[in-house]
Write a structure and sequence with these properties.
Elements: E1 9-12, E2 16-21, H1 38-49, E3 56-57, E4 66-72, H2 75-83, H3 85-88, E5 89-99, E6 106-115, E7 121-124, E8 128-139, E9 143-150, H4 157-164, E10 187-196, E11 199-204, H5 209-214
Parallel strand pairs: 4-10
Antiparallel strand pairs: 1-2, 2-4, 3-4, 5-9, 5-10, 6-7, 6-8, 8-9, 10-11
Length: 219
Amino acid sequence: MTKKKKLTILYEDKNLLIVDKPAKLLTIATSKEKEHTLYHEVSDYVKKQYPKNKVFIVNRLDKDTSGIVVFAKNEETKKEYQNNWQDYALNREYLAIVEGRLSKDKDTLKYHLKEDHNFKVYVCDEGELAITEYQVLEKNKSYSLLKIKILTGKKNQIRVSLSNINHPVVGDKKYGSLKNPINRLGLHANVLELKINGKPVIIKTKIPKEFKLMFKSLD
C-alpha cells in the first residue's frame, strides 16, 4: 500500500483553504474514482478539526496538472469566489515545459475554443475566446520552459493553445505531445494573486522537482 502524502497547505483562514495539488491526483471525484481525490484529502483535514466541518471547491485543475487549488470552508464564500472569480483571481501564472524551442520569446495567444463530444477542446472560428500569454524562461536543445499567464479561464486553454503553435506541453498525449522526459504532464499552477478580505495576497508554490531536473537554473 502506497504511503499517503501529507497535504501541502499554502494558505488558510476561517473561510479559505488553499493547497498545492500533486500531479496525477483528481481534484474532485468522478464516476470511476470516489476517494483518491484532493477534495477527499482536504475534507479529511478539516473534519479532523471539527467533524461537522465542510469544504467546497472554488477552482480546479486537470488530474495531471499540479499546483494551486482553492477551497472554501462555507457555501457563502464558495459562491462569492466562484461567481466573481475574474474579480478575485487578480493574476494566475503557470510553469510549462513544452516540446521544442519557440521562435518568439514572448507572445499572446488568442483562440476561440470549443469542446467536442469526446471532451477534447479544439481551436475554431467560433466558441469562447481564450487568451494566454507566455514568456520563455529557459530553453535547451529539445525543450523550452515557459511562464504562462492566463487572462481567461477556459478548459484546457494552455494545453490547446500551445499545441496549436506546435509546442505541446510535454507528456500531453491528448494534445499531440510525443515525449515525456519527466513522467508527468509538464504543467504546474505556481502563482495565484487572490483578493482576500479586500486585499491582494500572492500565493506561491515550490517548483516541482521534475522541472528542476530538466532546467538546472531552477535550483
